[in-house]
Structures are given as C-alpha cells and as structure tokens.
Design a protein that fits this description.
The complex is a heterodimer of chains A (642) and B (439). In chain A, 27% of the residues lie in helices and 25% in strands. Chain A is of the alpha/beta class and 642 residues long. Chain A is globular, with a radius of gyration of 32 Å. A five-stranded parallel β-sheet of chain A has the order 8-7-6-16-29, covered by helices on one side. Chain A has a five-stranded parallel β-sheet with strand order 18-27-21-22-23. Chain A has five domains: 5-134, Rossmann fold; 144-236 and 312-328 and 491-555, FAD/NAD(P)-binding domain, CATH 3.50.50.60; 246-302, no CATH class; 330-487, FAD/NAD(P)-binding domain; 564-625, Alpha-Beta Plaits. Chain A has 16 helices and 34 strands. The longest helix of chain A has 20 residues, at 110-129. Chain B has 439 residues and is of the alpha/beta class. Chain B has three domains: 9-104 and 181-196 and 362-438, FAD/NAD(P)-binding domain; 111-174, Alpha-Beta Plaits (2-Layer Sandwich); 200-358, FAD/NAD(P)-binding domain (3-Layer(bba) Sandwich), CATH 3.50.50.60. Helices cover 22% and strands 26% of the residues of chain B. Chain B has helices at residues 19-30, 61-74, 118-122, 165-169, 219-226, 269-283, 303-313, 411-438, and strands at 9-15, 35-38, 53-54, 59-60, 78-81, 84-91, 97-103, 126-128, 137-139, 141-142, 154-155, 182-193, 197-199, 216-218, 246-253, 288-293, 316-327, 333-339, 344-350, 352-357, 359-361, 399-401. In chain B, strands 1, 2, 5, 6, 7, 12 and 22 form a seven-stranded mixed β-sheet that branches. In chain B, strands 14-20-15-16-17-18-19 form a seven-stranded mixed β-sheet. The chains are: A alpha/beta (642), B alpha/beta (439). At the A-B interface, helix 2, helix 3, helix 6, helix 7 and helix 12 of A face helix 2, helix 7 and helix 8 of B. Bound molecules: flavin-adenine dinucleotide (FAD) (2 copies) and iron/sulfur cluster. One flavin-adenine dinucleotide binds at residues 15-21, 38-41, 46-48, 51, 54-55, 85, 194-197, 199, 219-220, 223, 268, 272, 275, 359, 362, 403-404, 409-412, 414 of chain B. Iron/sulfur cluster binds at residues 376-377, 380-381, 390-392, 394-395, 419, 422, 483, 485 of chain A.
Chain lengths: 642, 439
C-alpha cells in the first residue's frame, strides 16, 4: 500500500480552471490517508512543473504519483518519464483526465464539474495506493528480417537492412526478381528503363553477404511473435542444375513442345514450360514450370543441365521481423466491361508489352494501329463495383505511354476518355506535354462513362463529353486501351498466413496513416510498396525504406522490451474452457497441460493487454497486471463514495 | 553507439522541424544516434501543428502532432534549437560535415519561462499575429500559440518599444534584453534537409483581390479558423464578423500556372479544400459551400472515398476556372468564371471566398552550403538525384532530403519520405563511423 503519494492538479492555462475550481480539488484530497502533498500548477507539462514533480519525488521520497490534467493520450508518457527519471517506477503513477472528461465536457456546470474532478482524483489516488511496480518484459530478438516479395520495394528494403548489418532472407514467389517493374520498359520522368532499374537493384543485393535470396519460395506457416517469428518456407526447385550450360538451355527452350499463356506478357503471347521472361532477367537461369510440364523429356535430350530429381524443400527459419512487400495485380476487366473480349481491346499493362515488342510499326493482331482510344479508371473509382478508390499511378502512366507511342511510331492519334486527369505534383508536366502533342481529351463523370461497341468491323467509343457541353462524341478506334487500376494480389494467401488486416479497399492496412504508416497491428510485421495501396516506384521505395527503418529498430539491439501490462492466469482456479482463447484477438492464449491439468497459458510477447479475455472468464481466473481487480474495485469505490 | 562525446558533435544535423524533420530526427534518435534538430521558427511542428483536422481521416492535427512534438522534445538523443539557422555547411574529405549554427535571441530564457502569459498581458504593443495568419493581433511579448513547443514567450524586438512592462510582470525574471546571436560550430556525419514549403502569395494574382477585399482569405487562414486553437471560436468573415453562409473555394490559386512560374500541381489543395468544406458543413450547418476546380486530384489512399463523401454531404463541385473576383458594397463577392460544363461565362455571388493557395519551394537552401553544390530541380525543389532507387539522395553525398523540401506532398507522404531519409542517413552515419574508427 502506498502512503507517500504526490498529487498534482493542472489548470491547463484556463482550459481546466475556467470550469473546475482547481484549488478546491487540491484541498479536497490533501488530507486523504496516504497523500503526502497535493498541489495545483498552471501547466503540469511545463518544464518547471516537471522539475518540481521530479524534486518532490526525490526529496519527499514519494512512492506514488497522481497527475490530474488533460487526456493521458497526450501526456501519460511525459509524466511516466518524469517518474522514471526521479527513480519512481512508472506503474506507480495514475493519471486522471479532468480536461476532456471534465472541464470540456461540463463547461455549462462549474459546480458539478468541480465535484466530478474531485471524485476522479480520489479514484486515481485509490488506484495508486494499490499499484505495483512492474518491469518491462525483456525478450531476445533475432537480428534477422524476412522480406517477402522481391519487387522494387522488397529489394530496396533488403539492401538497406543488409547495409545496416542485418541478415535478410529475401523471399520471392516467382523464379525471377523485379516484380511489376521488370515488365516495364521506359519509366516516366527518368532516363532509366524498368529492366535497368531492376538490374541495378539486383546487382546491389545478389552479392551482398547479408542477403539470402530465395526464388520460387513462399511462406506457408507462421508461428512465434515479434523478435522470434518461426516461418516455414516452401521452395519449389527450378529443375535446372547449378552450373548450367547456356547454349544447351537455349536449345531446351526451343524444343519444349508445351505452350502456355505468358503471364509476363499478360497473356498476349505464349511461352514454353521451360522459360525465361527476357534475355537478361535475374537470376539469369531459366526455370521449369512444373505445373504445365508434361515430363516428355525433350529438353533433357538436348540439355545436360535439366534435373527432374530436384525436390521441393521445406525450410524452418526464425526471424525477428517480417517486412511484407508483395505488390499488386493489375485489374482484370470483366467480360464485356468497356468492350473487354473484343479482339482489339487490351489493358494498359498489355499495351506496354505490345509497345515493347513492336519496333517501328505498332501492330496488334496483324493490323497496324493508328487511332488509339484510352479509357481511364477501368476497375477504379467504380460507381457500382467495389473498387471505390483511385489507383493513383494510371493517369500519369497512360499519358506517358502516349508520349512513348508518339516517339516510337508515326501518325498516331490518341483519344483520352478520362474522368478528370490526376497528374498530381510534378507529374503535371507530363499532362502538359501530352496536351501539346495534339492528343484529344474527352471527359465524363463516374456515373456516365464512355462505352465501347462494335459496329460491323468498326470499334466505336462513345461519350457525352463534359468539356464540350455534353456533346455526344464518337471515335472510331483501331485499338482500345483499358487503363486498368491496381488491385490487391489475387493470391493473397500470405496475408492470411501472417494475419495482416485489410482496409476497405482490400489492400493491407497500416495502424495509422500518419503516426505509424508502415506498421501493422501484428507487432513486428511491417508493410511496404503497393501491397498497402496503389503507389508508383518513388512512393513504393519511400515506404520500403521507412519499413526497413522500422524493422531495423525492432531487431537492431538483439533485445526487445515489451509493455508488462498483460494478462496472467491463476493456475489453481483455471479449468480450461477455451472461452478466453476464443476472445483473444491476437492468438496469445494456448491450452497447456501442467501437472496433469489443462489450463490456459498466455504468451507474454504476444499479449497486448487489451483485456478481452477478462470478462469472458467464468471462474475469474485471469488478471491484468497494472489493472488488477483490486485496483479497479478500489477506484470504483472511491468514485462512487460521495 | 554514441561514440561521440564532445558537445558540438552530432551524428546528424536535421534542418527544419516540421513533421518531416521531426519524424526523421525521431527515427535516428530511436536508433541511438545523436541528433541536432534546428528550426528558424520560434517553435517546432512546422505547418502541420497549425492545421485543423487532416484529410483523409479527419483526425485533429494538434492531437496527432503534439504527442510527436513532445516525444521529440523529451528524447534524450535529440537536441532542439529554435530561432536557429545553419550556414557555411562544408564537407570534409572524410565525408563528414561542419556547420555554423546561429541562434537568434528570443530575449527570454526558455528554461525559466513557465508560459504564464503575464508578460503578454502587460505588453502594450499590438501587432498582427503571424501564427494566426494575420486574422487577429498579438502582443510584442508573446507565446506563439498555446501548443507551441517550446511553450515559452518571445519578444518581437522589431515591434518592442522597450518599455520594460514585461520584465516587471515576469514572475521568474526570465526576460533578458541583453541576449545576442549565439554562434556555434558543429561537426556532424550527415545532414537532413527538411526545410518544407512556403505558401503562394495570392497578392500576385491581383484580379482575385486578396488584400483589397476583406472577405477574400487564404486556405491557411481558414485552416486557423477551423483549428482547435482558433482565434474566434467559430468561423467569421473578416469584414463584419458575420457568420458566412455561402462560401466559395478557388482551387489551383498559384498552381498549374506557367505565367506565375509554377507549372506543377500542389498535390494537397484539392484535398484540403474538400476537407475544409466538410468541416465547414459541421461548423456552419446552414452554409452552402462551392468548390471551383479544374480537376479534383483525389488520388491517395482513402482520398477518392473522401471526395465522394463531401459530394454526398452536399458540397457543390463546379468545374470552372475563376477569372475575376469583384466586391459588392455589402462585402459580398462576385465570382466571374468559365463554367466548363456549359462552356459559358457565369457570375455567382458568395459572402466569403477562400483561395486554395498552392505550395512553393522554400528559397535559400542552396546558400546554406559552402564549397559544395546542392542542386535544385527545374521547379527549384531540392533535386532528388536518384529519384526511383534512392528518393532521399541529393547531389551531395551524405545530405538527404525529407518532406516537402523535395516536392509538394501531403503529411502521409512527408512522413514516408522522412522514413526514407532517416534510413539512408543511418547507413551513411554507419559508414562514417566505420571510417572514423579505422582511422
Ligand atoms: C502499366 C504500368 C506502368 C507503370 N509505370 C510506372 C512508371 O513509369 N513510373 C513509376 O514510378 N511507376 C510505374 N508503375 C507502377 C509500378 O509498377 C509500381 O509502383 C511497382 O511495381 C510497385 O512495386 P512493389 O515492389 O510494391 O510491387 P510489385 O512490383 O508487384 O512486386 C511485388 C513482388 O512480390 C512478389 N510476391 C507477391 N506475393 C508473394 C508471396 N506471397 N511470397 C513471395 N513473393 C510474393 C511478386 O512476385 C513480386 O515480385 C507502373 C505500373 C503499371 C501497371
Ligand atoms: C492549408 C493547408 C492545409 C493542409 N491540410 C493537410 C491535411 O489535411 N492533410 C495532409 O496530409 N496535409 C495537409 N497539408 C499539407 C501539409 O501541411 C504538409 O504536407 C506538411 O506540413 C509538410 O511538412 P514538412 O515538414 O515537409 O514542411 P513544413 O511544415 O513547412 O516544415 C518545415 C520547417 O522547416 C523550417 N525551416 C525552413 N527553412 C529553414 C531553414 N533554412 N533553417 C531552419 N529551419 C527552416 C520551417 O520553419 C518549418 O518549421 C496542408 C497544407 C496547407 C497549406
Ligand atoms: S489515376 Fe487516373 S486513371 Fe487511375 S484511377 Fe485515378 S483518375 Fe482513374
């Protein structure tokens, strides 16, 4: 029981004292048993007041502290720090909020407000009396980070962490690195192509002593918690030997009889079952797509590097933090959506691959393309569909694509059916450049978008153009390019394995957009790049570096101090009914058998002290340190005792 | 990790203590590095601490800035100097930096000031309050605003009459008119530029009448009127203190306009105007709010949904370019604009007009350096020399850029770019300390 308690009551300028008689509160509690001193102060948070509290704790050897001021959200850490500096365990400090909960809420009733403030301070004193010193829970942390996804975000984060001296497992599901950027040739507003950027990033990681790159690899299970995640990695082999013969491999690709849709070119071309996406792709070794391989053995006949004996591998790894950078999928239009299904309607990503493959003439399906209609916001800003968001990258990417076509081919005419061009920031100059190239812009609202239809062998795009007084305008197009937005990855099973929450837009969600933008509610798991929401490369890399800093701060010292306010189980009274485990949102409770008895056990590094398990426990066997039943009951009695 | 012990030696010098600089300093300090964080202003927190609520989540800006600000100010690894500028930053051959740091006198001993405001009461001089963007007055002895950090008085020496009233009123004797410029030279391993942005000056578009017509205000002034630390406790129009009931917003004021030398989009005005419109609908339930825009750039996470929400609340969005504003005798304003939908020129009357001013790069950043060239881009922002792979890198190895010093951006993007700058700075510090140890 504490009996040398210091009580400090704040005026908050006038924020509190205009409505609460602070002196009266001070005097009402000064004679309560255990209270050593009770003082009022103009601004408790001011340096001078902090100094006074510090000195009082030292000189009067206070064993408990009550501060009655604004919301603890604001200054709980301030006064905890004062207590700690003065040598008082911070769990012997209880805060009373007499601003948001009293003066501001009852500015019409000064007497009542003062009365309520007195009760709130009395309750805090009652709480502090029963308070117990607690020490942070210290756990060892692995100085290793798993980075999932080797797109630009994942590769950049991996390099930064590795340079900082952390071991990195870089885990890529495909056989090749680079993600979506590897599929891009020219990039907007820079002199580098997507492939060159990927090459540059790959070179920075593949020889780095701190990075182990796994390709064809996926996390299939996760256990443990911050500091010590246990992950199970499934690695599908390439079926190609380590030291392989280039020429023979080329031949093997030639002779493979299996042809499947080429994902890399968004299915506008075919590839073999043994494949490489483009000549310089990294890692520079083909792979066999075993799902489609018929095991006919043709490749083995011409190439000695093929090895069908390679086995799927399962690796168990322990890491301190997991950085997720699994990227996005381009939206896939539904049948008939803006003419999808017609032989001259393609998506923007497909169109970029077509441009990449056509040298001096733009040819698709055997026909030369001159008139191009771009339809914006396909799969984004939907009125009826579920994608209400704007995909952010596509206006700029489309305008830039138009510039590319004008540069590469002659006599191109482009029509942009948009809903208001969103070239934010410096990207505005691209819009300006395109406007000067003579492209035509036609604009509509979300609810009245352009339509695409076939009239004989003509493809007609129609819109009521708001820029020309809602005139209905028709354009005959050789090619219709659907500007498809970004969507969360179709196969997002990794999100379920890691239990990362998703937002309304179905992308992974951060804790707080401004305060904790790269952290998830799962301690130790960070998110970066387009898996969190549409982003261009610059924005993906910024978030990747931020996430790297965060993951680094988790693992860098090899030790973590966790908040000790957690639940604990009374082993004598617990009879394991499982209700607590069901109620726990963090999976912190497990069934164990101790001395022949089934009881609940709480994982200290996973429990967040949310208290969800307490009310469901029928035998009252769970207590929360820092907020024990004893403390809470004492506080309630004090509040109720008028 | 703190291998440096003498006082004027830091791992990082962070210039500018807005949200970007503050976040970068905090990241580095949490990794154990010693940081000197300077700001030329009297308080840290930059523009963000002055805002009302922030899009797209509508959290109270003060409530998310003040905990950050107090975390920064009590961090054992961060030293803060306000009213302070750096100059003559030079790079030594080993890659580390030297800088001259000059602190202007505040004429108040920050440590001793309790923020009691008695000096403010005593001071007889009244001038325009720059922290309320000239909406109201303040004294020559004053606390910048209630959530300023440090929350200490300052004497505005240019307007002070040296009457001594404040000195007599101050209970802690912390006012000191003998203070002069304090100069120190520091050594640091890396420099982060987080010097932020400046607002477009709307008097450069005389046809909008800002400065002549009282009821034409800037978005930052409206931001102050809506903030929890607001001057009037409600929204008033300046000419007669009436509650406005028909407010117009003129978007792209000073942005996307080559004739003004600023061809780019300011990236935040569409959204902050949409936000203010929503807040006004709450503050003045009877008021009509109209936004005159060219394109609504609701591009970020949750933005398009936020725009849709404003539409459904009844905010009027008119696609049109405002050509001219004229004033009526009763203080109301006539907007002449080209209605893009109807392709006609129209006129409408409003009782208050808010100019959604754009954001511009701060000037004079290059001059902080001596003997090394900090390159700017074609729009005069700090140039990002490897914009895709190392967005924080500048033309000087070891100098990194964070926040709106490199481009217009909102708070979430400023914070992410600060994360990038601190990651790269941490790596640079590591490199420097390895070199230093091996020497
Ligand atoms: C047509 C088009 C043009 C564009 N043009 C530009 C431009 O000019 N400039 C620009 O800045 N941006 C441009 N972008 C945007 C750019 O593509 C993205 O910003 C970038 O790809 C995002 O990178 P990321 O690393 O977050 O995601 P991704 O590139 O999607 O990479 C994610 C990686 O994670 C891997 N992965 C996914 N799931 C798992 C799993 N479960 N386990 C392991 N690995 C997994 C994927 O295989 C992939 O390699 C364009 C986009 C498109 C579609
Ligand atoms: C009216 C308005 C409303 C807005 N509303 C929102 C919103 O709702 N949501 C949102 O996300 N964003 C909003 N923004 C944008 C937001 O303000 C910026 O994204 C953010 O403030 C940028 O922070 P910063 O640190 O980069 O710059 P700043 O806030 O400008 O900070 C820069 C700091 O550097 C200091 N400094 C400058 N030069 C020097 C020097 N040479 N030496 C020392 N110090 C120096 C300055 O004093 C300042 O403190 C709004 C902007 C405006 C104008
Ligand atoms: S960026 Fe442009 S095309 Fe993409 S969804 Fe947004 S408005 Fe539509």
């Amino acid at each position: 029981m504490k009996n040398k308690i210091g009580v400090y009551i704040c005026h908050c300028g006038g924020n509190i004292s205009d409505y609460v008689d602070v002196e009266k509160v001070r005097d009402a509690v000064k004679d309560i048993e255990g209270v050593e001193i009770s003082v009022d102060t103009m601004f408790a948070c001011a340096d001078s007041s902090q100094k006074q509290i510090f000195n009082d704790i030292k000189e009067k050897q206070l064993d408990g502290l009550v501060v009655a001021s604004c919301s603890p959200k604001l200054h709980y850490p301030t006064f905890s720090a004062v207590a700690e500096r003065a040598g008082l365990n911070k769990y012997n400090y209880v805060h009373a909020n007499i601003r948001e909960q009293v003066s501001w809420a009852h500015s019409d009733n000064k007497l009542g407000a003062t009365e309520k403030a007195i009760q709130a301070v009395k309750a805090a004193i009652a709480g502090v009396k029963e308070s117990i010193s607690l020490e942070p829970i210290k756990i060892k942390s692995q100085k290793i980070v798993a980075v999932i996804g080797a797109g630009v975000a994942g590769m950049r984060a991996a390099k930064e962490l590795a340079d900082l001296g952390v071991k990195v497992y870089l885990i890529e599901r495909e056989y090749f690195v680079g993600g979506r950027v590897a599929q891009l040739d020219y990039l907007c507003r820079v002199q580098e192509t997507g492939k060159e950027l990927v090459t540059r990033m790959y070179e920075a990681i593949h020889k780095h002593e701190n990075i182990t790159l796994f390709t064809g690899a996926e996390i299939i299970e996760k256990g443990g918690s911050i500091g010590n995640f246990k992950i199970k990695l499934k690695i599908t082999p390439r079926y190609i030997k380590k030291d392989c013969n280039e020429d023979e491999l080329k031949k093997a690709i030639e002779v493979c009889p299996v042809e499947v849709d080429d994902d890399f070119n968004f299915n506008i071309t075919k590839r073999k079952a043994i494949y490489k996406n483009y000549p310089s792709e990294y890692p520079q070794k083909p792979a066999i797509d075993i799902k489609n391989c018929t095991r006919c053995g043709e490749c083995e006949k011409v190439c000695s590097s093929i090895d069908f004996n390679q086995k799927e591998e399962i690796l168990d790894l322990t890491v301190g933090s997991i950085l997720t950078a699994t990227g996005f999928d381009p939206y896939r239009p539904k049948e008939n959506e803006f003419g999808w299904g017609l032989d001259n309607v393609v998506t923007l990503p497909q169109f970029r691959r077509i441009i990449n493959m056509c040298d001096d003439k733009l040819i698709y399906n055997g026909k030369e393309i001159k008139e191009i209609a771009y339809i914006y916001c396909v799969g984004s800003r939907q009125v009826d569909g579920e994608n209400k968001y704007c995909s952010r990258y596509c206006c700029t990417a489309t305008l830039y694509t138009s510039i590319l076509t004008h540069k590469k081919y002659k006599n191109i005419h482009a029509y942009h059916f948009n809903r208001g061009i969103r070239t934010y920031g410096k990207q505005e100059v691209i819009y300006d450049e395109v406007s000067q190239l003579g492209d035509i812009f036609l604009q509509s609202y979300e609810y009245d978008p352009a339509t695409v239809e076939k009239q004989g062998d003509k493809t007609i795009v129609k819109v009521k153009d708001i820029l020309t007084n809602n005139t209905e305008i028709e354009v005959e197009a050789d090619l219709v390019v659907l500007v498809t937005g970004m969507e969360p990855r179709k196969d997002n099973s990794i999100g379920d394995v890691l239990k990362i929450p998703k937002g309304r837009d179905r992308f992974y969600n951060e804790i707080h957009m401004k305060l904790r933008p790269v952290e998830t509610v799962i301690d130790g798991i960070t998110i970066a790049g387009a898996c969190q929401g549409p982003k261009n490369i610059l924005e993906s890399v910024n978030s990747a570096l931020s996430a790297a800093t965060k993951s680094y701060s988790i693992v860098n010292t090899g030790e973590l101090a966790l908040e000790p306010i957690i639940a604990s189980v009374n082993e004598d009274t617990c009879t394991w009914c499982g209700l607590c485990a069901d109620a726990c949102p963090y999976d912190a409770i497990e069934l164990i058998n101790k001395n022949g008895k089934d009881i609940a056990e709480i994982n200290k590094s996973v429990c967040k002290g949310c208290g969800m398990c307490l009310p469901v426990c029928e035998s009252d066997s769970i207590e929360m340190s820092g907020f024990t039943n004893n403390i809470i009951e004492n506080m309630i009695s004090a509040y109720a005792d008028i | 990790m703190q291998y440096q012990t003498d006082n004027n030696s830091y791992d990082a010098l962070v210039i500018g203590a807005g949200i970007a600089g503050g976040e970068a300093a905090l990241n580095l300090a949490n990794l154990g590095y010693k940081v000197l964080l300077i700001d030329k202003d009297l308080t840290i927190g930059g523009k963000m601490i002055m805002l009302s609520k922030v899009f797209p989540t509508l959290d109270c800006s003060a409530c998310i800035t003040t905990p950050k600000v107090s975390e920064i100010s009590r961090h054992p690894n961060i030293k803060i100097l306000t009213s302070t500028q750096a100059s003559n930053i030079t790079q030594k051959s080993d890659g580390t930096f030297m800088a001259e740091i000059t602190t202007k006198p505040r004429y108040v001993e920050i440590e001793d000031c309790t923020g009691c405001q008695l000096c403010e009461e005593a001071c007889p001089v009244i001038v325009k309050d720059q922290y309320q963007y000239d909406l109201v007055g303040r004294k020559a002895a004053y606390i910048p605003f209630s959530i300023a950090s440090p929350r200490a008085a300052a004497i505005d020496i240019e307007n002070c009459t040296l009457c001594g009233a404040c000195e007599r009123a101050c209970p802690t004797n912390c006012i000191d008119f003998t203070q002069t410029d304090k100069k120190i030279t520091i050594k640091c391993n890396t420099v982060i530029l987080a010097t932020g942005f400046q607002l477009f000056d709307p008097t450069l578009i005389p046809r909008y009448g800002f400065g002549r017509f009282k009821n034409v205000i800037t978005s930052m002034q409206m931001e102050r009127q809506l903030a929890p630390t607001r001057p009037f406790n409600t929204v008033l129009r300046p000419s007669d203190g009436k509650l406005p009931d028909n407010i117009a917003y003129v978007l792209c004021t000073g942005s996307r306009d080559k004739t003004l030398g600023n061809p780019i989009c300011s990236q935040v005005c569409c959204m902050y105007s949409t936000k203010q419109a929503q807040l006004l609908m709450g503050a003045l339930p009877m008021a009509d709010i109209t936004l005159y825009y060219l394109h609504i750039r609701a591009f970020g996470k949750g933005f398009n949904e936020f725009y849709a929400q404003a539409q459904s609340m009844g905010v009027e969005f008119v696609k049109g370019k405002v050509a001219k504003i004229t004033e009526k005798e009763n203080g109301n304003l006539i907007l002449r604009y080209e209605d893009i939908n109807g392709n006609v020129v129209k006129e409408t009357e409003h009782d208050m007009v808010v100019l959604s001013v754009g954001i511009l790069p701060n000037v004079g950043i290059q001059e902080l350096f001596s003997g090394i060239n900090l390159e700017l881009d074609e729009f005069n922002y700090v140039k990002q020399t490897d914009v895709l792979a190392s967005p924080a890198a500048t033309s000087i190895n070891g100098v990194f850029v964070a926040g709106t010093a490199s481009a217009p951006m909102d708070i979430p993007d400023s914070i992410l770019s600060a994360g990038a700058a601190s990651a790269e700075a941490a790596n640079y510090i590591r490199k420097m300390s390895e070199i230093n140890v091996s020497v």
